[in-house]
Specification:
By secondary structure, this protein is mainly beta. It has one domain: Porin. Helices cover 8% and strands 57% of the residues. The protein contains two helices and 14 strands. The protein has a 14-stranded antiparallel barrel with strand order 1-2-3-4-5-6-7-8-9-10-11-12-13-14. Strand 10 and strand 11 form a beta hairpin. The two termini are 29 Å apart.
């Protein structure tokens, strides 16, 4: 018992220490590593970016690290396509069961190969590339009815010839509540170390604080209906309120819709999920006034 209490106090201390360093007053456009804002969880994307309380497995750990304890372990891989700008993201995750805990490993890449360049006079210049690379190691478990997850990350951001590096912390909590409710809270990309480019410029990671509630209810015909509403604050954006609805039939077929209320360039989102035995497949479609459309998919194999 004393060991569990100590672990929980250490975890809470890390959360408080990281939260105290957040730079939520950063001017708009100041944050770098912009690609890290995009969660590669198709389920969350289809729910309009909501679901911090609904997370269920390693694919959702990109939204809330506590998700990793919600399955028995497994591997997952997926991709995202930003159609208008020819951007592409790839990720692979490994969820390793160790007694009552999970050890998580993830690698993700997101970037563009040939963006159009412009000088100070708005004249066209040669194209350039931009990408972010993220390597992540963490753990997840359960204490006192709470699911928790914490991971440390090395991230590298490259835009043209400028390269930055950063050390980041990701933390999350999730708890089932009475009468079909659940709650979740996550802190993503909280930087504890950053590098500078050759020109001396520094970076601010796109820190994300997100929390929310969900409600699930069984309906006739073996359908489980869930509603999720989150509040999300990114350090270079105004607060947004993602929300989504999911209908799941016999834990096999899921249909999802969502909308990120108050988000810039917001558009409805859609998605589906399929589960059969140890296998899972997720797909999501997002509209956006800037990127036109984003599509993403993920395949998971559970142990």
């Amino acid at each position: 018992m004393h060991s569990r209490v100590s672990k929980l106090l250490i975890f809470i201390g890390i959360c408080v220490g990281a939260a105290s360093a957040l730079q939520f007053d950063a001017p708009k456009g100041e944050a770098s590593f912009g690609f890290l804002k995009l969660s590669l969880s198709p389920r969350s994307a289809a729910l309009g970016g909501a679901g911090s309380a609904l997370v269920d497995g390693i694919v959702d750990a990109d939204l809330n690290p506590a998700a990793a304890i919600r399955d028995s372990g497994g591997i997952a891989a997926g991709q995202a396509y930003l159609n208008a700008t020819s951007g592409r993201g790839d990720f692979a995750s490994w969820n390793i069961p160790v007694e009552n805990y999970r050890v998580t490993v993830q690698i993700r890449y997101l970037g563009y190969d040939n963006l159009s360049g412009f000088d100070g006079l708005d004249r066209s210049t040669a194209g350039y590339g931009a990408h972010s690379l993220k390597l992540q190691l963490g753990t997840a478990g359960s204490l006192f009815g709470f699911n928790y997850g914490v991971s440390t990350t090395f991230a590298q951001n490259n835009i043209a010839d400028a390269t930055y590096g950063a050390g980041l912390l990701n933390m999350g909590l999730q708890r089932q509540l009475p009468k079909g409710f659940s709650a979740g809270l996550s802190l993503m990309n909280a930087d504890y170390w950053t590098s500078k480019a050759q020109d001396g410029s520094a970076i601010i990671a796109p820190t994300i604080l997100q929390g929310g509630l969900s409600y699930s209810r069984s309906l006739p015909a073996s359908i489980l209906m869930s509603v999720a509403l989150d509040a999300r604050k990114r350090n270079d954006e105004d607060i947004a309120f993602p929300m989504g609805v999911e209908a799941c039939w016999q834990n096999i077929l899921s249909v999802r819709v969502g909308y990120p209320i108050a988000q810039q360039e917001a558009s409805p989102t859609f998605g589906v999920g399929l589960n059969w035995s140890r296998y899972g497949f997720e797909y999501a479609y997002q509209g956006n006034a800037v990127t036109s459309t984003t599509q993403m998919w993920a395949l998971e194999i559970r142990y």
